[in-house]
Amino acid sequence: MRRLAHERAGELRLIEDPEMRANRLCECNVVAQVEAVAANPFVRDAWRKGQSLTVHGWVYSIQDGLLRDLEVSVSAPSRAPRRTP
């Protein structure tokens, strides 16, 4: 997460509220994890074999108890998310 915070330092610096900044970093981390799972050789192999597999990018808020879809789901290698959600 430190690497991600460093990569996103410019964007995060613009968010004054510490809680909102932490939430944004969490969202960025979820997107990065979706990218990592979508790049996993086992996942790629499943897609290559035509198996149905979708990686979802969701984040849960302890504050309000809601699960939010970050709309970065991947169901094929060609649908991998971009770095910025």
TrEMBL record:
Its EC number is 4.2.1.1. The keyword Coiled coil does not apply. Keywords: Lyase. SMART domains: Pro_CA. GO terms for molecular function: carbonate dehydratase activity; zinc ion binding. SUPFAM superfamilies: beta-carbonic anhydrase, cab. Coiled coil: none annotated. Gene3D superfamilies: Carbonic anhydrase (3.40.1050.10). The keyword Lyase applies. It holds the Pfam family Pro_CA. Belongs to the beta-class carbonic anhydrase family. This is Carbonic anhydrase 2. It comes from Brevundimonas vancanneytii.
